[in-house]
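Q:
Got a chain?
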Amino acid sequence: MQLWRNAGLYTRLLLPILLLILSVNVVQGYLILEYAKSDAQISYREELHEIQRDLVPALAEQAVIGDIGAISRLLQSQIRERADLGLVQWQYQLNLLQVMDLDGRAALLAPTWFVRLLAIPASEIAGPIMFGGKYYGVLRLRITPVPVINKIWLRFLDWGKIFSVFIVAIFLLVNLILRSNLAALGQLSAAVKRFKAGNYSVRVPASGSHETRGVAGAFNGMAAELEALLQSLEESNSTQSEQLHFNQQLLAALPIPLYFKDTDGVCLGVNTAWKNLYGFSTDEIVGYSVQDVFSSAPGFVAHHLKMDAELFQHPGRQTYEITVPTAHGILRDVIYYKATYTNVEGSVAGLIGAIVDITERKQAQAALQAEKERALVTLASIGDAVITTDLDGRVESLNGVAQQLTEWSVDAAQGLPLEAVFKILDEDTRQPATNFISSAAFGNASTVLANLILMGKDGKECSIECSVAPIRNPEGTLFGFVLVFRDVSEKRHLLSQITWQASHDALTKLPNRVLLGDRFKQAIASAQRHQQLLAVCLLDLDGFKPVNDYYGHELGDRLLIELAGRLSSTLRGEDTVARLGGDEFVLLLSGLNDIHEIGLAMQRILAKVAEPYLLDGQPIQISASIGVAVYSQDEIDPDTLLRHADQAMYQAKQAGRSRYHFFDTNQDHQAQSQQHQLNRIRRALQQGELRLYYQPKVDMRRGQVVGMEALLRWHHPERGVIGPLDFLPLVEQTDLIVDIGEWVLHEALRQMAQWAEIGVNWVISVNIAAHHCERPDFLARLKDILADHPAVSPRLLELEILESAALGDIIYVRNLITACHALGVTFALDDFGTGYSSLTYLKRLPADVLKIDQSFVLGMLDDQADLALVKAVISLAAVFNRTVIAEGVETAEHGMLLMQLGCDLAQGYGIARPMPASDVVAWSQQYLPAPLWAEWADITLDVNDFPLLVAQYDHQKWVKQVIDSSEGQCTLNFSELKDHHCCRFGLWYDGHGSTHYGHLPEFSALEALHVGVHDIGPKIVRLNSAGQFAAAKALEPGLLVMQEEMRLQLASLQRAVAKLRSGTQSE
């Protein structure tokens, strides 16, 4: 009983339920067995009677004739036919025939306890055999209960399984119901314990039955209210504690002594500054009155008590100055600031006071007055001129320097008005200066005057700087003025020179940007006043940098000086020519009436600039491009006019140089749009939106990854991943391309260092814009960038520049490549073949790698010209011992053709698309070359076999044109279609092919295939011409099958030729 009392609610509910279910099922099982037993007994009796009815007539018939053998066989047949028949016996007179089931055909399956439980006996029946009213013996039949027992046992087993499943299901269901309902009570109990432990945010999930959800809801509501109440109390206490702590810190931190006391004069608190001032501790002052603390200073106490009484009598504020005894008996001058404070009911509760120590201030004022007196004595000894006057402005004294500059002696000047002795003029207007003494009388600070000329008594002039200040007594009363001035004539002369230099170009002596701004304002004002045009021209020399680099900077400077002279002599006197820097000049042409007149002026200027320059006996020819913005047509500010002129000048250069171009508003809008895009790209660089992707370079013949090309991508937050062609062209001619290029170098080297840590060392190529590599500091910056990544070997870095950029200034690029080689960095010429390179240029440029432009590679399968260009580049690379790599390899066929042409290195989408750095190593580890390349890995064709490759692609092009005839795009003539000897492939076959390969069986096999192709091709073209497109379409698969057979046969011929070549070379 004790164990039952200690059991949980779950156990006390589950066990009775299970016992009840078990009892019901046991009773049910017993009833089922009893029913089966009764049913079996009834069935046995019925079966025995049925056998008897069937057997008695047959036995009687045989008994009549006395055929004992037949009777025996009949009885045996019954035993065999009926599995449950255990005994058949016939007794007649002395005859006894008995057949029994001695074989035990029905084996007992049920266990002994089950047989005893059923207790089914064997059923037996006996009856006489009568026939014709005569007696023929007795028939006895017995049925064994074994089959029935087995049947009941098997049914019992099935019922037991069902019962077990039922019991388990009931158990699980009851268990689930009890646990789901009791779980809520458990959760509530646990929540109460956690709430009691201080976890006020605990809540009980509302689950289970309606009652448990109600209990959970009630608990959660109570917990929420208690939590809110406790949180409110905690926040209130925290706020009050923080406020009290803050007030204490504030009082302690204030440098001004503070105190507060009640209406009885008892001190309630002081801050640290107060304790430091008077030298008392908190225990010595708090709780005591002023009489208790300052008992040794009765006068101080009496004054304070009097002032406190007045303040309490008239609540408000109070201020007074007093000398107080401070720590160590030192007296200090202080100011007391007092104010009453009230309680919550509004009654005066006490006062609070603040003390300001003014001892140092008083001492400083006394010292200042003494210093002023000393200053008057020392006036004569200073280097500046000094004049003092009385209140009416009459001269009282002059020091020696003042006498020298004014040419007045002290005796002669005393008593005279200052204007008579100190005659000054405005330096710009030469008019007498205003009376500045009267303005100085209204202030205490000195008044500084500049740009003045002093007229001496004898007419001598000198430039001066002057200051005048009032002189006051300690009470602040004005009683005179003092003038201090100095001779700045030499300084002004030097300043004038500096000003001229600041506004003029040091090399050409032309106005610079500073003076140009002033001239601009004047020119605009003149154009507005006279209603005329102002031409703002920006002139930039064409090709000045190569001249400067080739002949040297000294000669380049001399050319700029002569150019400045030519421009000045060509312009009119009212015009302005200014140098902005480098080879850029600005021309302001005023007083023009129409655009035609401006055009004529531009032609004169361009012609003058284009005249040869004879420098050191060297005739130098140079031209200029001019951009023109016209004021009054574009009424805008000078900066905008200059910007417009600059844009127009750029257009002039784009149009071919040595010309002028007027600003176009539409082009300006385009430029503004480009500027907006530039700013967005600059922000993308700053915000880390740029990424480097890497495209693998592979050796197709060896099936190895040999390097990567770093390619820029912009991860735009709205537009997604943007390729370089969509934004880099906007920045290629700006300095932003330099910042992007240096970022790319840093990022690529950083990634190379990471790969090196895991043993991956690839050559990484980085594209460098022309504007970037042309910068004078490019090499120095490259050295610094390499130094920032010491873990990366420079030999693993390859710089790529466009071929067109390299040809722009071949001398500079050659020197740059040589310098990069000295650092260990290699160079590649990108898009090779798109420029106008020559053998001479290629020889002069020591580039390590030539990259075949992808447009040629993509088109070489279909365009014979592209194929020839690719072959030419590969041959050039071989002649000059340069590495060659092909871009744009998009299919295995592209790669195979390149290998046949002698180019083994490639990159392109057919190998791999550019990928993030995180994917590169995994890709390289699973990379497998195209199976077609592996087939051709050991095969190389000779240059003499190039027509064989051309013929192959001529044939493919012929087939394509035939198929395209459905769209009317076939350009083949009748003979090329009908006669297989007249197409380009047929001409090769009968000519070059027959001469070089006619002895090879692989060549001879092409004839039949070629004839078959020409048999189908004309039919397709004829059907398409007749509009029978469906019939033509039906023939195309056959044509394509034959084309594929031709391709395979040509490949066999190429292998045979390559094998023949290699055998000849080995011999």
Observations:
- Residues 9-65 form the longest helix (57 residues).
- The domain at 678-921 is CATH 3.20.20.450 (TIM Barrel).
